[in-house]
Amino acid sequence: MGFHLKQSSRFIFIPVLFFIVFIVVSALYIQYQNRVVGKQFANHAAIISDDIWALDSAGASIYLRLAMKADHYKSLNVSIPGMENFISLQQGKLTGISYLLHEAGLIGTKQLSQEIFSKGEQIGTLSGVKYVRIIFPLINILIVLLLVLLTISFIMFLIQSRRHLEEEVEIRTRKLRSSEQRFHDLVNFLPEIVLETGMDGNITYANQAAKNRLDPELTSGKAQSFLDYIVENDRNDAENNFYTSLKGEPIELQEYSVIGYGNIPFPVLLKIAPLYTNDMSVGGARMIAIDISSRRRLEEQLLRDQKMKAIGLMAGGVAHDLNNILSGIISYPDLLLLNMSEKDKLYKPLQSIRRSGLDAAEVVSDLLTVARGVAASTEITSLNDLIAIYLESADFRELISQHPDVQIETRLDPALRNVKCAPIQVRKCLMNIINNGIESISGRGMVTISTINEHCFPPLNEEAKDTTVKRNASLQKQNFSKIIIRDTGKGINDEEMRHIFEPFYSTKVLGRSGTGLGLTIVWNTMREHGGTVHVTSSSSGTTFELFFPSINGKINHLPKKDNWQDYIGTGQRILVVDDEPRQLEILTGLLASLNYATVAVSSGEEAEQFLRQNCVDLVVLDMIMSPGQNGRTTYENILKIHPKQKAVIASGFAKDDDVKATLAMGASYFIAKPYTIEQIGRAIYKTLNS
C-alpha cells in the first residue's frame, strides 16, 4: 500500500517540478531577452546617428534594412525635427511556420523606441515594431529540459535498477542461505543417519545423527570410507550396492549391521542413491541409514508376547481341568481327616496326599499366573509385613538350612506406604527372587531385602553398563512402594537378561530346581498389580526392584490361621451349581460337615428352574459349565428372580472378565479350585453373616 502511494506521488511530483523549472527558466530567459533586445535597439540608434546628423537617409536605410532582417523587426521608423518619417521601412508578411505561429498568437509584436544622439544632442528618434519570437527559444529550452530530464531519469533508473538488483541479490542470497540453513537444520534434526560420499566412498558430509551414532570426528579432514562402519560380514554386499548405485541403477533398502560409536553394532536399513553435480554427472552417493534397533526389540517383544499368549491359552485350559482333578486329592483327605485322630495310621498318609495336592495346586496357580489370571483376593497391606511373614515361613527356613553360608539382611523403611495387593502372589514373587539370589551365590554371600518409598521410576539409560529390562512404559509418574532385593551372586549375562522373564526359560535343571516359571510369575504379578520390575546386573551381583503403586488406605489386618470349626453354619440352605459330578459330591460333603443344608444341580439352567420355585440362603456357583450357560449368565438370570441373592464363585479357571463382572453384580468371593474346607468355609460364613 505504502509503495503504491509513493509511486503515484512520484508520478505527480516530477511533472509539477518539471513545469516549475520550465516556467522559472523561461521567465529568466524572457527577462534576459528583453534586456538584449533593448540593448540591440539602442546600438542600432547609435550606429545610424552619424548618418542622421549628416541627413544621409540612404546610408541609414541600408543598415536598418539589414538590422530589420537580422533581428526580425516588422517596421522601423526614424523621425527628426520637422520630419516625422525621415526613414520609414516595412517588413514583408511572415511566411511558413512563422505565419502559422503568428496567426495562432504564439508570435506577437513589441513596440520599441530609442532617442538618437550625436555630439551630445538629440537629433531624432528611432522607433520600431519587433516580432516577439520567444516561442522558438522556449521550445528549445523545453527540449533541452526534456533531454536533461530524460538523462536524469535514465541515470536514476540505472541507479534504482542497480539498487533493486543489489537488493534482489541480497534477498536471494539471504533466502539461499536460509534455505541452506533450513536444509542443514532439518537434516541434523533427523534421527536417521545421513551421509554423502565421493566416488571412492569417502565421507564428505555427515549429519549430527551420524556423528552421534558413528563417530564425532566424521568429516574432520581425514579420509574415512563409509565401508569402515559396516561390519565385516556385510561389507562386500554394501560395496557392491554402492558401485551399482553410482551407475544409476536403483537400489532398494538393504539391512546391514553398522559399527556404532564405542564399537557397538546395531542394525540399519541403508538406502544409497547417486549424487549428481551441476553438469548432471555422478559425483558420489547420498545415503540414509535408518536405525531399526527399536523395531528389532519390538519384534522380539512381539514374539515373546505371542509365546506368552500361546502358553497362557494352554495353561488356562490345562489348569481348569487339573484343578477339578486336584479337588478330589485335596478335599477327600479333608473329609476323611475331619473326624480322624492324629494317632490313626492313615492320618499322616492322608496329610501327605493333601499336602501333595496343595503343592500341585500351587504349580497350577503358577500356570494361571502365566496366563495372566491372578486367582487371588487383594487387600490393603504393608509390604514390610509380607516380607516378615515370608522370612518366618517354613519354606524360607528350609532354604536357609540348605545354604548356611548365605546371610540375609533386611532394611525395611518403617514409613513405607501401604499397597493393595494379593498377598499370596507377592509371597511367590519374594520366594522366587530370593531363591534365585541365594542359589546364584557360590560360598559365602549376602542377600539384602530393602523397602523404600519412591516417587517415580529411575531414568532408563540405553548405554549404561547395567541392563534394564521389562519396563512398563504405560505407567504414569506416581507414588510407589518399592521392594529391593540385592544379591552378591555371579550376576546375569546380557544374553540371559533378555530371556529371564520368558516362561520355561531357566539356567537351572528343569524339574529339579523349579518349573522355569518363577520370574515369569514375578513379571505377570507386577503387571497385574499395576506396577513393574526393574533389573540390573553385573559381575558383583543382581538387583531386582519391584514397584507397587502405593495407596493411602488402612491396613486390613492379616487373619489368624484358619480353623474350619470357626466357620460352622446353623443349617442355612445352600445351592451348589457345578457341571462336574465329583465337584458336587466333594462340596456337598464339605458343606454337610460345616452344618449346611445343600441342594446340588449340574447346570445353570437347572439352578434357575429350581430357584423359580424355591429360595436358598446362598449359591455356590461354578463359572465354566459347558455346553450350557456359564456362571455369569446364570447369576444374571438368578438376580432377575431373586434380586438380592447372595453368591460365592468357586471355579478352576483364573479370575477373568466374567468372574470380575459376576463379582461386580453382587457375588461376594472368588474361591479358586481346588480349595480347602477352611477356604470355602470362610467365604460362605462371611457372606452369610455380612
What does this protein structure show overall?
- This protein has helices at 2-47, 49-53, 57-71, 96-103, 135-189, 208-213, 232-246, 293-337, 347-370, 383-391, 394-402, 423-439, 494-497, 518-528, 581-593, 604-613, 631-641, 657-665, 677-688; strands at residues 73-80, 83-90, 108-118, 121-132, 193-197, 203-206, 254-259, 265-276, 282-291, 379-381, 406-411, 418-421, 445-454, 480-487, 532-538, 541-551, 573-577, 597-601, 618-621, 647-651, 669-672.
- It is of the alpha+beta class.
- It folds into four domains: 16-133, 2-Layer Sandwich (Beta-Lactamase); 190-291, Beta-Lactamase; 383-551, Histidine kinase-like ATPase, C-terminal domain (Heat Shock Protein 90, 2-Layer Sandwich), CATH 3.30.565; 564-688, Response regulator (Rossmann fold, 3-Layer(aba) Sandwich), CATH 3.40.50.2300.
- The strands form four sheets. Strands 10, 11, 12, 13, 14, 15 and 16 form a seven-stranded mixed beta sheet that branches.
- Strand 3 and strand 4 form a beta hairpin.
- Helix 1 (2-47) packs antiparallel against helix 5 (135-189), helix 9 crosses helix 14 and helix 10 (383-391) crosses helix 12 (423-439).
- The radius of gyration is 58 Å and the shape is elongated.
- It starts with a helix and ends with a helix.
As for the number of domains, it is 4
Number of strands: 21
Multimeric state of these chains? Answer: single chain
Distance between the termini: 85 Å
- Please give the CATH class of the largest domain: Alpha Beta
What is the annotated CATH architecture of the largest domain?
2-Layer Sandwich
Radius of gyration: 58 Å
Question: For the report, how would you describe the main beta sheet?
Answer: 7 strands, mixed
Given the structure, what is the number of helices?
Answer: 19
Strand content: 15-25%
Principal-axis shape equals: elongated
User: What structural class do you assign from the helix and strand content?
Assistant: alpha+beta
Q: Would you tell me which CATH topology of the largest domain applies?
A: Heat Shock Protein 90
Query: In the CATH hierarchy, what is the superfamily of the largest domain?
Result: Histidine kinase-like ATPase, C-terminal domain
Overall pLDDT score:
81
Unreliable runs, pLDDT <50, ≥5 residues? 1-5, 459-474, 509-516
Helix content: 40-55%
